[in-house]
Design a protein that fits this description.
The complex is a heterodimer. By secondary structure, chain A is an alpha+beta fold. Chain A has 3 domains: 27-126 and 198-247 and 253-285, Aldehyde Oxidoreductase, domain 3 (Alpha-Beta Complex), CATH 3.90.1170; 292-447 and 597-761, Aldehyde Oxidoreductase, domain 4 (2-Layer Sandwich), CATH 3.30.365.10; 449-594, Aldehyde Oxidoreductase, domain 4 (2-Layer Sandwich). Chain A contains 19 helices and 30 strands. In chain A, helix 13 packs across helix 15 and helix 17 packs across helix 19 (749-761). Chain A is globular and about 85 Å long. Chain B is an alpha+beta fold. Chain B has 2 domains: 3-77, Beta-grasp domain (Ubiquitin-like (UB roll), Roll), CATH 3.10.20.30; 87-148, [2Fe-2S]-binding domain (DNA polymerase, domain 1, Orthogonal Bundle). Helices cover 30% and strands 16% of the residues of chain B. Chain B contains 5 helices and 5 strands; from the N terminus they run E-E-H-E-E-E-H-H-H-H. In chain B, strands 2-1-5-3-4 form a 5-stranded mixed β-sheet, with helices on both faces. In chain B, strand 1 and strand 2 form a beta hairpin. In chain B, helix 2 packs across helix 5. The relative contact order of chain B is 0.16. Classes of the chains: A alpha+beta, B alpha+beta. The interface between A and B is large, with 59 and 58 residues. The complex binds FE2/S2 (inorganic) cluster (FES) (2 copies). One FE2/S2 (inorganic) cluster (FES) binds at residues 39-42, 44-49, 59, 61 of chain B.
Chain lengths: 762, 154
């Protein structure tokens, strides 16, 4: 493995210098001559009828160039799959924060002033903000015309449950009958924001011929193009999307937000328009992680075998389902974990309410499922008086097993990740102090599928270009593509260029998301590079006097040169080979598409914490994270994904929550909504477990999403180990710990003693 | 009403006519077109807008541009000198401390201020210097490592 040329190495990112010098252009940095600033007027009510909108005073304000309402925009409903969201609310608003009008003005201050001058008369209506209420028969309907919407996976009518999915294996009734013990518990998780640091931004410029240019912080430029073309009613060739650097995504940058409004404002004003969401708007009306209510029921034998498992999840989707490309969340399928269970039944329900719409957030649904399943595993283990590691180990899947929902998986190596994490952490060792606790959790998440094309060019001087529409919202994807092409062509990294290219210039790419980029875009780039290499070899064969039919076999490449393996000293440069082919460049394009796969990735996290039983303060001291990655093309980038996911997951577990009262978010600032700061960042030991077969180039698997999954339950289990209370409602705030300690009569020293006792018992 | 303000940014002088309520961040970005300082919250919470004012890190979104008159302003665009990256920038590139890059300018400015007064900070001191800066991508680990990798001989 060590003789790789460019992969398997922690090379510096291709865009790092651009970023550390402040030169990297993000969408909000786009400044065009004559550009106006747009702002949206939002509903303060979760549910209301719009009786009247009067924009005349706003229009009269000096500096205002355009004001629009629903009457000015297309009536299409848009969405990534289910199309249910209007461009501006028409007649009815369905959540507090929904856009009802927009203005464009010469500067932001004027635009904001104009918003206050728009008069909207609302007739407030009762709002459904409780997901369980919304599911009841006869409940008020959030979408009366649901059955007319496109994109519904199954026809549904007169309900708020727009999607109900089930996964079954075996016969759970039989499985429960075989159990010595049946346990049941409910878990709840809160709504959290992706927390990308760059707020959504969009700029639209309309050319004199009506063609549209869009700059967008969206991570999927090709989808921006198709959605915009559809809204405007133009062929997609008339819309060009110019990608900028994207300041973080975590699933939140896959849907268009203000792009259509910029278009209509620009059309009305005859000038380009920029809109940037404020941090407050981000909290009120982006597409955060779904809150969930999860019920789990397990049947086990006294010896610790799991005989049956039943799970159900309710996801409050908020007012619109438009922000989910798959309708459901992948996490539902994970509700039986990574264990060998003969009888499984899982249900997931996705429900409309008048809360803010939720969308995709790093491993959609998985951290919720993982929190429930992995907390529950510890609860069962405690009941059976089996060590939590041993209980998992006894039941963990092994290679050759089907998944808990009955699908084939290849290369299952959950146990390798478990052993690696245990070995490098404090598991099984003496507790360093009385407030210390340790917890373990496992998780799984598949490599994403999709479609991507890439063009690889070797130029007349032997340097290479990659033209790819793959986006890199900070994951390092573009660096990894360069490493892959560098490896295939044996051209040094510094002679390979990959630029951000617009949708007119790059071939189609489905966009980052679901952990697909290394696999899908990587395969297309690798294959294109190998095609170019073949042509270079064929050309060099003439110069090296090698028979053409043997050339691919006998000729090798290194550092931009071709040579006969038997005679490595006699070399032909790529420049000569290009010339020899009678061309100025040699180019190949490859499309790679994959919709189904048996590859998945595993991880084990071990959290070590200290809990102050008086205040409930939890300090995460150390996380040991072992990840099955197949092959790490760029180990530092992979570690970076894991470290970032862990700190994000700690926020999910302990700190973050978008609090809501009557359907309105009450903490829409980063002062009141806490992200982990450097001070909460623990020591992180990342262990990259290579060797399992991956579908990506060089057997790589994906890494973007999984790190955020097992962390919260690992921390929850560590807290239980430290002070003996089990919190099943996220986030695990200090207050919840203190209250739980009081209720269980375990406060202070007693908690510590109880923790010790448990430790001794194991 | 607009007022004349003279700003000294990265050693250059800019004579501007601006509204008195405009923040230093907006003026840097929109009047001087130095867009390296980022707006993540506009409220002093994220640190993406951090610049040095007379050598001290401030959130440019909380400073009125007019109050920065005649003071030395250093932004991320002024950190590299004569085409040579600052050792901190080099360390961030080398250690893989940059992901999406949106927090990076602000964090580098906070750390530059730290190193100017304390060339050999402990991990705890690094964390305190960065405490006003959020990063959602990296988990901070590689940033700590980047600072710790610098030559800390006095
Ligand atoms: S933009 Fe200034 S602190 Fe966030
Ligand atoms: S690198 Fe993305 S926020 Fe820090």
């Amino acid at each position: 493995m060590s003789d790789f040329y460019a992969v398997g190495k922690s090379v510096a990112r291709v865009d790092a210098v651009t970023k550390v010098t402040g030169a990297a252009g993000y969408t909000a940095d786009v400044m065009l001559p004559g550009m106006l600033y747009g702002k949206a007027k939002r509903s303060p009510h979760p549910h209301a009828r719009i009786a009247r909108i009067d924009t005349s005073r706003a229009e009269a304000l000096p500096g205002v160039r355009a004001v629009i309402t629903a009457a000015d925009v297309s009536e299409v409903l848009i969405g990534l799959r289910i199309r249910d969201v209007p461009l501006l609310a028409r007649r009815e608003v369905r959540f507090a924060g929904e856009k009802v009008a927009a203005v464009a003005a010469v500067d932001e201050e004027t635009a904001l002033e104009a918003l206050d001058l728009i008069e909207v008369e609302y007739q407030e209506l009762p709002a459904l903000i409780d997901v369980k209420e919304a599911m009841k028969d006869g409940a008020l309907l959030v979408h009366e015309n649901l059955h007319t919407y496109s994109g519904l996976p199954k026809p549904v009518k007169k309900t708020n449950v727009f999607f109900h999915e089930t996964f079954s294996k075996g016969d759970v009734a039989l499985g429960f009958a075989q159990a010595d013990l049946v346990l049941e518990h409910a878990f709840t998780t809160q709504i959290v924001h992706q927390g990308y640091l760059e707020p959504h931004a969009a700029v639209v410029d309309i050319g004199p011929d009506g063609s549209v240019t869009v700059w967008s912080s969206d991570k999927v430029p090709f989808r921006v193009r198709s959605l915009m073309a559809e809204i405007i009613g133009m062929p997609i060739t008339r819309v060009r999307v110019i990608p900028s650097f994207v300041g973080g995504d975590f699933g939140g940058k896959g849907m268009i937000f203000d792009e259509p409004l910029c278009y209509y404002l620009a059309r009305k004003a005859g000038r380009p328009v920029k809109m940037v969401m404020s941090r407050q708007e981000e909290f009120l009306a982006a597409s955060p992680r779904h809150p969930s209510i999860i019920r789990l029921k397990a049947g086990v034998t006294k010896a610790g075998a799991i005989t049956a498992w039943e799970a159900s999840a309710l996801f409050d989707s908020g007012a619109y389902a438009a922000y989910k490309p798959q309708v459901g969340l992948g996490g539902t399928k994970k509700l039986a974990g990574t264990y060998r269970i003969p009888h499984v039944h899982i249900e997931g329900r996705y429900v409309y309410t008048h809360n803010l719409p939720c969308g995709h957030c790093r491993a959609p649904g998985d951290p919720q499922a993982s929190f429930a399943v992995e907390s529950f595993m510890d609860m069962i283990a405690a009941k059976l008086k089996i060590d939590p590691f041993r209980f998992r180990w006894m039941n963990a899947l092994e290679d050759g097993d089907l998944s808990p929902t009955g699908e084939p998986w290849r290369g299952i190596n959950i146990k390798e990740t478990m052993s690696a994490a245990v070995e490098k952490s404090g598991w099984g060792k003496a507790k360093p102090n009385q407030h210390y606790g340790i917890g373990i959790a496992c998780a799984e998440r598949p490599t994403g599928t999709g479609e991507s094309s890439a063009v690889v060019i070797v130029n007349g001087d032997g340097s290479a270009n990659i033209i790819s529409g793959a986006s890199d919202p900070g994951t390092g994807a573009r660096t990894i593509l360069c490493q892959i092409v560098s490896e295939a062509l044996k051209v040094p990294m510094e002679r390979i260029t990959i630029n951000l290219v617009d949708t007119d210039s790059a071939p189609y790419d489905q966009g980052a998301g679901g952990g697909r980029t290394t696999f899908v875009a990587g395969q297309s780039a690798y294959r294109a590079a190998m095609e170019v290499r073949k042509e270079l070899v064929a050309s060099a064969a003439k110069l090296l006097k090698c028979a053409p039919e043997e050339a691919q076999e006998l000729i090798d490449v290194r550092d931009g040169f071709l040579f006969l393996k038997s005679e490595p000293a006699k070399r032909v440069s790529y420049a000569q080979a290009v010339k020899g082919a009678g061309k100025s460049q040699i180019m190949a394009e490859e499309t790679f598409s994959c919709n189904q796969m048996e590859d998945t990735c595993f991880a084990t996290h071990i959290a070590e914490v200290e809990v102050d039983p008086e205040r409930g303060y939890v300090e995460v001291k150390r996380i040991t994270a072992a990840h099955d990655i197949g092959f790490a093309i760029n180990p530092a980038a992979a570690e970076g994904q894991i470290e970032g996911g862990i700190v994000q997951g700690i926020g999910f577990g302990l700190l973050e929550e978008m609090q809501r009262v009557d359907g309105k978010v009450t903490n829409p600032t980063l002062t009141d909504y806490k992200l982990c700061t450097p001070r909460e960042a623990p020591e992180i030991i990342t262990l990259l477990i290579e060797g399992a077969p991956g579908a990506g180039p060089f057997q790589a698997k994906s890494i973007g999403e999984l790190p955020a999954c097992p962390i919260a339950p690992a921390v929850a289990n560590a807290i239980f180990d430290a002070v003996g209370v089990r919190i099943t409602d996220l986030p695990i705030s200090g207050e919840k710990i203190v209250n739980a300690l009081k209720e269980s009569g375990l406060s202070g020293g007693k908690a510590v003693a109880a923790g010790k006792e448990r430790a001794d018992a194991v | 009403m607009k007022i004349p303000v003279t700003l000294k940014v990265n050693g250059e002088t800019y004579d501007l006519i601006i509204a008195p309520y405009r923040t230093l961040l907006d003026v840097l970005r929109e009047e001087i077109h130095l867009t390296g300082s980022k707006k993540g919250c506009d409220a002093g919470d994220c640190g993406a807008c951090t610049v040095l004012l007379d050598g001290k890190p401030v959130n440019a979104c909380l400073v009125l541009a007019a109050t920065a008159q005649d003071r030395e302003i250093l932004t991320i665009e002024g950190l590299a000198r004569n085409g040579k990256l600052h050792p901190l920038q080099e360390a961030f590139v080398r250690e893989g401390a940059v992901q999406c890059g949106f927090c990076t300018p602000g964090i580098l400015m906070s750390l530059k201020a730290l190193l100017d007064t304390n060339p050999a900070p402990t991990l705890e001191e690094i964390k305190i210097a960065m405490a006003g800066n959020l990063c959602r991508c990296t988990g901070y680990s590689k940033m700590f490592k980047a600072v710790e990798s610098l030559d800390r001989s006095p």
